[in-house]
Design brief:
heterodimer; A: alpha/beta; 6-stranded mixed sheet; two-stranded parallel sheet; B: alpha/beta; 6 strands; 37% helix; elongated
């Protein structure tokens, strides 16, 4: 009888935490790899409109962004919607140069796939958007993407 | 000589790692850029001859004014009915002479290479000649413009879904075969032409 009785093990022993750092490091590396730091800070307020038919952008590395919206610092820059390219305010006439520079910075084989993503505030009027589109046409940057938030139903 | 401890205490390692982890958790943005993808028309070349005019019945003019009001084929319209109207125009189920022409593949005089392919895969189906002409005012709000673009895209994707269901039994968005995808895209093309905007309503 006593032969089969299990020895009461000392169950109150602490769980070993020796592998905890490894687990945390694994998580850390996951986030380090997936993280991308915000490339440029926005000077304009952009709330993109909602849409149901959105598609995912295929190649983020081949995308250049144009932001249009009201400036954050209304007291300095006014309330009129402005264009932001890279890290500065720009005029419609600067777009051709911007597109050329973006194209130059990409690999020659990838140049036909360059997309221009238009991140435009939903309250903007179409006038400035049209000017930008005409400028993009002239610069031959024809692939565009109207950035939008996906919703189930409008 | 004092005995130096052979191991560094690794107990605080987890804390350091946690700190780094939380930093990356906070700074991470995993947003995928999404949106409506469109191709702009190439710049107009004045030396090229103008393309042949399109028959009036094959054009669906969609106008948006500076008050964000819609007009489709000369009649005021609301955003809720735009999708159905576009679908009716493109599919023309009752062969209405005012809506777009629907020639069969075999009835057409010439087919392009991709149309030949679609013909082989889908068989002899009716393909709309319809073109949607979208024109906005400079005072139209961007929100309204995207709504209209979205409705037009939704109409086309519904027609594609219907055709795909009928031919392959699954929705267009779930199709995997590239040839089938191309065939449907050719049979239901997204033809949205944007006219030069007007400036009627001022700013």
């Amino acid at each position: 009888m006593a032969k089969f009785r299990k020895k009461k093990s000392n169950s109150s022993g602490a769980i070993s935490t020796a592998s905890l750092p490894d687990i945390i490091f694994m998580l850390l590396f996951f986030f380090m790899v997936t993280t991308q730091m915000k490339e440029n800070s926005l000077f304009v307020k952009v709330t993109v409109p909602q849409a149901t038919e959105v598609q995912k952008m295929e190649k983020k590395a081949l995308t250049s962004f144009i932001y249009i919206g009201k400036p954050h610092q209304a007291s300095v820059y006014g309330t009129e919607p402005r264009i932001q390219l890279n890290d500065a305010f720009a005029n419609v006439s600067d777009i051709a140069e911007f597109v050329a520079a973006e194209r130059e910075s990409k690999n020659e084989a990838d140049r036909p796939f360059i997309t221009t993503s238009l991140k435009i505030d939903q309250e903007t009027r179409m006038g400035i958007v049209t000017d930008v589109k005409q400028e993009l046409r002239k610069a031959n940057a024809l692939k565009i993407n109207y950035s939008a938030r996906w919703v189930e139903k409008i | 000589m004092a005995r130096s401890s052979p191991e560094i205490n690794a107990g605080s390692m987890a804390d350091i790692a946690f700190l780094l982890l939380i930093f990356f958790l906070v700074t991470t943005t995993m947003d995928v850029d999404k949106g409506l993808q469109r191709m702009l028309p190439p710049p107009v070349d004045p030396t090229q001859p103008l393309p042949p005019p399109i028959k009036e019945r094959n054009v669906l003019p969609v106008l948006i004014n500076s008050q964000d009001m819609l007009m489709v084929k000369g009649k005021p319209c609301s955003i809720q009915t735009l999708r159905q109207q576009t679908k009716d125009f493109l599919t023309n189920p009752n062969n209405d002479p005012n809506l777009s022409e629907q020639p069969l593949f075999s009835e057409r005089l010439s087919l392009t290479e991709s149309e030949e392919k679609a013909f082989k895969i889908l068989g002899d189906i009716r393909v709309s000649r319809g073109v949607i002409s979208l024109q906005n005012d400079r005072g139209t709000s961007y929100n309204m413009y995207i709504k209209v673009q979205n409705e037009l895209a939704a109409a086309i994707s519904e027609i594609r879904d219907d055709l795909s269901m009928q031919k392959f039994g699954i929705k267009f968005s779930q199709l995997k075969n590239e040839d089938q995808l191309d065939a449907i895209r050719t049979a239901v093309p997204m033809r949205i032409s944007e006219a030069e905007p007007k400036d009627v309503g001022g700013k």
